[in-house]
Design brief:
46% of the residues lie in helices and 17% in strands. It contains five helices and four strands. About 5% of the residues have low confidence.
Length: 131
């Protein structure tokens, strides 16, 4: 019985990813890269969400995006949102769903042409209503 338990524990231990973190605990939440490497991203995001802004004024960021643009979606989900989550007291984000749209006036009304088609123009208009 002891042998079975020993083999079971060895098997579990050998399958665990023992990759060590190269940062000291005091540095785990200093950057997104260190939080990910050390496996504490969720904890860092939660801890930073409760910190007050010690900088005074927040940094103003305006992002002009397109509703159907894959690069815009990637930037929002992989760069802007994690940064905002960690620094939400120090950063103010304004999203403008216009991006690479072209406008023209035909004498009666404005016409908009979007890079990714009519569906994107519709998506941009819907996003304007919600933001």
């Amino acid at each position: 019985m002891k042998v079975i338990i020993l083999f079971t524990l060895l098997n579990i231990w050998s399958n665990v990813d023992c990759k060590s973190c190269s940062y000291s605990p005091s540095q785990w939440c200093t950057s997104l890269a260190s939080a990910i490497e050390c496996g504490v991203l969720k904890q860092c995001l939660e801890a930073n969400a409760t910190k007050p802004n010690t900088l005074g004024q927040s940094v103003q960021v305006e992002l002009y995006l397109e509703s159907l643009c894959p690069a815009c979606r990637f930037f929002l989900t992989s760069q802007l949102f994690p940064t905002w989550t960690m620094l939400q007291d120090a950063i103010s984000v304004t999203l403008v769903p216009y991006g690479n749209a072209q406008e023209s006036f035909d004498g009666k009304k404005y016409q908009f042409t979007c890079q990714h088609g009519e569906e994107e123009c519709l998506g941009n208009m819907i996003q304007v209503r919600f933001w």
